[in-house]
């Protein structure tokens, strides 16, 4: 069992930066790849980024590639999403997820980017 709590969201102007954190509890956190997803109003949830259990491999949605960076610190049971050059279209609730088939989800953190 893994519990996930996102934080770090907020309101930022276009071109600005935010760093989201996903703090996990549970002894098996370091066994899992972690994904970040987002859901904008009226849209389906979409994949943003993923990092392997070791942190050695990561992947990104084309829409955020080159602007977002995912990282993890297994000693702190935390995964980060550094978001730079934010755009209004990045506005969404951001979720982290873990476990087989992303069984475990956090409650989400709101990111709003003003133009």
Averaging pLDDT over every residue, what do you get? 95
In helices, the fraction of residues equals under 10%
Q: How much of the polypeptide forms β-strand, as a percent range?
A: over 45%
- Overall number of strands: 11
Kindly provide the radius of gyration, computed on alpha-carbon positions and rounded to a whole number of angstroms: 13 Å
Shape summary: globular
Helical stretch tally: 0
The major beta sheet can be summarized as: 7 strands, mixed
> What's the order of the H and E elements?
EEEEEEEEEEE
Distance between the termini: 40 Å
- What are the segments in which pLDDT stays under 50 over at least 5 consecutive residues? none
Q: Which structural class best describes the helix and strand composition?
A: mainly beta
Any overview of this molecule?
The chain has strands at 3-7, 10-13, 18-25, 34-39, 46-51, 58-60, 68-73, 78-83, 92-98, 104-105, 109-114. With 115 residues, the protein is mostly beta strands. Strands 2, 4, 5, 6, 9, 10 and 11 form a 7-stranded mixed sheet that branches. Strands 1-3-8-7 form a 4-stranded antiparallel sheet, with no helix packed on it. A hairpin with a 5-residue loop joins β9 and β10 (104-105). The chain is globular, with a radius of gyration of 13 Å.
List its salient traits:
115 residues; mainly beta; seven-stranded mixed sheet; four-stranded antiparallel sheet; globular
Layout: helices, strands, pairs:
Blueprint: E1 3-7, E2 10-13, E3 18-25, E4 34-39, E5 46-51, E6 58-60, E7 68-73, E8 78-83, E9 92-98, E10 104-105, E11 109-114
Parallel strand pairs: 2-11
Antiparallel strand pairs: 1-3, 3-8, 4-5, 4-9, 5-6, 7-8, 9-10, 9-11
């Amino acid at each position: 069992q893994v519990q996930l709590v996102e934080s770090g969201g907020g309101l930022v102007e276009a071109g600005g930066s935010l760093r989201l954190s996903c703090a996990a509890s549970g002894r098996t956190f370091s066994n899992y790849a972690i994904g970040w997803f987002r859901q904008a109003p009226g849209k389906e949830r979409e994949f943003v980024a993923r990092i392997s259990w070791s942190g050695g491999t990561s992947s990104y949605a084309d829409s955020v590639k080159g602007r977002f960076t995912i990282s993890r610190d297994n000693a702190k049971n935390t995964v980060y999403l550094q978001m730079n050059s934010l755009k209004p279209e990045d506005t969404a609730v951001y979720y982290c997820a873990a476990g087989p088939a992303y069984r475990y989800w956090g409650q989400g953190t709101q990111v709003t980017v003003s133009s």
